[in-house]
């Protein structure tokens, strides 16, 4: 992957949310562009994804992937009804816990 010029990398380090772009994410440690910042890549710098986000001020719920990839994953999840499956599963778990507490 390509590296942005030093001036661009310095700008991105001051504005870390700008490093998450439509078709790439720029690693603020190495300056390289990727589709996804993997845990394996971040481990090269002694960081987890959580530590990386905290270090650079990126919200913890923000994915470390290109925006187009995140949008594609979101679309597939909605088509498969994953959100509805999760809601149903959580309701079933809560019901099961209630039944367990009643018998105790």
UniProtKB/TrEMBL annotation:
One of its GO terms (molecular function) is DNA binding. Pfam families: ROS_MUCR. It comes from the Bacteria. InterPro entries: ROS/MUCR_sf, ROS_MUCR. GO terms for biological process: regulation of DNA-templated transcription. Belongs to the ros/MucR family. This is Transcriptional regulator.
